[in-house]
């Protein structure tokens, strides 16, 4: 089975070659308007015309995704978290949508089933100045978190662990980003 990190990197590279997110249109001749556009982390994304006027867009899992300004209402019927998937063009979790996921590298959605309805949790970026400000959440999904303890030494991949969170430029600020290493 292919390494998920390799596939995520490949998708991001393909989006970079394709030109990243389109800033003037939500669709091209080859991209129907209901499909998310490819993007590269840190590139600007444009929201589909159907997105709420107060929503913004960000690059999540190499796709331009609607980031709701408020927590959307729970939708659809579900029994387990696996029944709920993220719809990047609407900014909602819903049953019957292909479940996407993996680690949340800087910010992003997490869909879960709560009281038999799909619920969206959006994890915001964790601000930082240095790597010492960054940690990894002990809870799922895998995502950056503020460091509980300040680092006393630099992280050594595959010696100290397979996952780290590092401080990287993100827009006009800096944010913690998950880094996974194939050890």
Keywords:
globular; 31% strand; two-stranded antiparallel ribbon; 183 residues; mainly beta; 3-stranded antiparallel beta sheet; 2 domains; disordered N terminus
Describe the structure.
- With 183 residues, the protein is mainly beta.
- The protein folds into two domains: 4-19 and 37-123, no CATH class; 131-180, no CATH class.
- Helix content is 8%, strand content 31%.
- It is built from one helix and eleven strands.
- The strands form five sheets. It has a three-stranded antiparallel sheet with strand order 3-7-6, with no helix packed on it. A two-stranded antiparallel sheet has the order 1-2. It has a two-stranded antiparallel ribbon with strand order 4-5.
- A hairpin with a 2-residue loop joins strand 6 and strand 7 (117-123).
- The longest helix has 15 residues, at 4-18.
- The protein is globular, with a radius of gyration of 17 Å.
- The chain starts with a helix and ends with a strand.
- Mean pLDDT is 76; it is low at 1-33.
């Amino acid at each position: 089975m292919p390494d998920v990190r390799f596939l995520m990197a490949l998708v991001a590279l393909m989006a970079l070659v394709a030109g990243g997110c389109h800033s003037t249109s939500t669709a091209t001749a080859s991209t129907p308007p209901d499909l998310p556009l490819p993007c590269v982390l840190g590139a600007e994304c444009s929201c589909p015309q159907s997105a709420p006027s107060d929503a913004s867009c960000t690059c999540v899992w190499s796709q331009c995704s609607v980031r709701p300004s408020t927590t959307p209402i729970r939708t659809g019927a579900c029994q387990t978290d696996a029944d709920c998937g993220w719809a990047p063009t609407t900014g909602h979790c819903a049953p019957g949508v292909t479940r996407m996921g993996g680690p949340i590298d800087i910010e992003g959605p997490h869909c879960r089933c709560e009281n038999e309805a799909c619920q969206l949790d959006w994890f915001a970026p964790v601000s930082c100045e240095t790597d010492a400000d960054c940690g990894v959440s002990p809870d799922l999904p895998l995502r950056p978190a503020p460091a509980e303890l300040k680092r006393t030494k630099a992280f050594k991949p595959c010696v100290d662990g397979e996952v780290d969170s590092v401080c990287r430029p993100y827009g006009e600020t800096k944010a913690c980003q998950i880094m996974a290493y194939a050890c």
